[in-house]
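can u do me a favor
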């Protein structure tokens, strides 16, 4: 009988970073455990099923746990409902499947923090499912800021076998090991599928790329656009050498639109890469480029591929500042209130990817058949 691997993530409300992590893990599990039954439990399974189609040969996408937590007032109620699925009869088949899991895996990102306290119940659900003896892991977690919810989460994290966090401040909020963001599984990989590629060529060839958001800002969108435009002028950037990537459909476009209104001459000929195209072809990042990014994952991936850049902190609190600082690049983290010199990419990108791969191998060791296939391929390559 095939293993059941149960993944839990905030997928399906398109956000390039969150979806990139899901795609990276699905591809890795397909390589290591192609015969496993993989369940992706997320809040928006319809969209997620489209985005991650065919990333694993036996993938089921559902929202069982996310629906369950919406029916429960407390984390304890969630655990009780998992123990007795008859309390939620419409979810009973999905809950029984969740309770059969051999591995329960909470995928990484910054979604279990004080910003979204309702996700305590999701972690409680993850800690409560799985067969007897199942392994529970949570990888690449960004838990800062977590002062308000850490106490309530303490019990649930204690039920996990492995928890890794991507930044030092997060160590304060869980019994965790220092690790790194899950996106390092694929950050420097050239595979052009489901967001993991190197982007449309005409965008990738451009020397300057902007990734900017309208959500979670501490300043108006117009002000952020003004700061970016001022920086581009400082570099004498021209539109025919500029690309702008959209990581959240519709949301990031607001910044692009403001930039176009502020300086139509500068933006003439600039390349807008909409989310759908970004997902189809990947991030258009390469060595030799210069980036401006408010977003964390574009910063990480572009810097991993050798791009220079600036990480812009224009958000409420230090949620993004902590994330940007964890990348390990030379990019300065700045408000961009004054023109800033870009910094270099990540010097140890290979080492970070190897560490991510080692963790994946430890969680999902390849079975005998997969090891045999791999050994045969290596032998054929040696001739």
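np, heres the sequence
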């Amino acid at each position: 009988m095939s293993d059941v691997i149960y993944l839990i993530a905030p997928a399906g409300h398109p956000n390039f970073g969150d979806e990139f992590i899901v795609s990276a893990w699905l591809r890795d599990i397909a390589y290591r455990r192609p015969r496993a039954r993989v369940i992706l439990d997320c809040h928006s399974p319809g969209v997620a099923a489209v985005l991650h189609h065919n990333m694993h040969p036996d993938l089921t996408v559902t929202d069982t746990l996310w629906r369950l937590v919406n029916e429960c007032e407390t984390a304890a109620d969630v655990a009780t409902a998992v123990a007795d699925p008859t309390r939620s009869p419409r979810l009973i088949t999905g809950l029984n499947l969740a309770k059969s899991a051999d591995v329960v895996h909470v995928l990484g990102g910054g979604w279990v923090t004080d910003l979204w306290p309702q996700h305590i119940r999701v972690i409680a659900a993850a800690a409560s499912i799985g067969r007897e003896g199942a392994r529970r892991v949570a990888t690449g977690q960004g838990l800062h800021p977590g002062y308000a919810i850490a106490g309530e989460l303490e019990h649930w994290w204690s039920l996990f076998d492995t928890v890794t966090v991507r930044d030092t401040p997060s160590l304060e909020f869980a019994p965790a090991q220092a690790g790194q963001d899950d996106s390092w599984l694929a950050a420097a990989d050239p595979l052009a599928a489901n967001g993991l590629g190197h982007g449309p060529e005409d965008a990738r060839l451009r020397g300057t790329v902007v990734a900017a958001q309208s959500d979670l800002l501490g300043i108006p969108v117009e002000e952020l656009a003004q700061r970016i435009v001022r920086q581009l002028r400082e570099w004498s950037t021209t539109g025919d050498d500029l690309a702008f990537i959209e990581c959240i459909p519709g949301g990031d476009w607001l910044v692009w639109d403001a930039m176009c209104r502020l300086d139509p001459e500068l933006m003439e000929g600039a390349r807008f890469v909409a989310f759908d195209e970004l997902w189809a072809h990947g991030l258009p990042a390469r060595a030799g480029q210069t980036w401006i990014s408010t977003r964390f994952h574009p910063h990480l991936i572009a810097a991993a591929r050798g791009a220079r850049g600036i990480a812009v902190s224009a958000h409420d609190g230090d949620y993004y500042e902590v994330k940007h600082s964890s990348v390990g690049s030379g990019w300065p983290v700045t408000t961009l209130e004054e023109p800033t010199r870009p910094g270099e990419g990540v010097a140890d990108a290979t080492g970070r990817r190897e560490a991510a791969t080692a963790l994946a191998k430890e969680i999902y060791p390849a079975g005998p058949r997969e090891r045999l296939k791999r050994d045969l391929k290596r032998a054929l390559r040696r001739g």
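The chain has two domains: 4-186+351-382, 201-334. hope that helps!!
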